[in-house]
Amino acid sequence: MLVCAEALGPVRFHGFNYDGTPLARRVQAPIILCVASEEQQAGHVDEAVTFMLQNGPISETPGLDVGLTRTFLPDGGRIRPVTAKATSKEGGRETFVVFDETHLFVQPELHRLHETIRRNLGTKRKESEPWSLETSTMYAPGEELRGRTLARLRERFGEDPRLGVSVRPPGGPLRLRLRR
């Protein structure tokens, strides 16, 4: 749902109305990636997005072109799944990225891919306020690399309001903290 909202909805803060009501704006030509460790995993997110775009109330949006391997958006943006090498993503202009099942990013190439895309988010299109979402389950013993990376981010940024990490123990309650 977040991918669909980022693609077509007014999702960025745009000031306040005369009565104090917050206003939102769309992202101009959003570039959205669904990143995973392998093609089938990337398809899990992308297939859900494709289904919502083809069958939901926004399916009749003029200029929306939903395909099997990419979706073109009305104002020149696009959505696509990614599992390729990091060097092919250098200089990307992404506005929103979903990193799915990052506990499976155990290969060095996947770490480079993740770091390259995250670096692009912070430098290429600042006016669009780019961001990413990482979803994961707990890593297995011996696969702590991504978990350690998240811990290092927490150490580096501390309580920086730009970083939100939510961890739920198995069977525990889900606690969400949304930060801007």
User: What's the order of the H and E elements?
Assistant: HEEEHEEEEHEH
Tally of individual domains: 1
Major sheet: order of its strands?
Answer: 4-5-6-3-7-8
CATH class: Alpha Beta
CATH topology: Rossmann fold
Please tell me the overall pLDDT. 78
| Count of β-strands | 8
The secondary-structure class comes to: alpha/beta
Q: Quick one: overall form? A: globular
Descriptors for this entry?
about 180 residues, alpha/beta, Rossmann fold, six-stranded mixed beta sheet, two-stranded antiparallel ribbon, disordered C terminus
Describe the model.
With 180 residues, the chain is α/β, with parallel strands linked by helices. The strands form 2 sheets. A 6-stranded mixed beta sheet has the order 4-5-6-3-7-8, sandwiched between helices. It is globular, with a radius of gyration of 17 Å. The chain has helices at residues 2-8, 39-55, 108-123, 145-157; strands at residues 10-16, 22-26, 31-35, 65-66, 71-72, 78-82, 96-100, 131-135. Helix content is 29%, strand content 20%. It has one domain (2-10, 25-154): P-loop containing nucleotide triphosphate hydrolases (Rossmann fold), CATH 3.40.50.
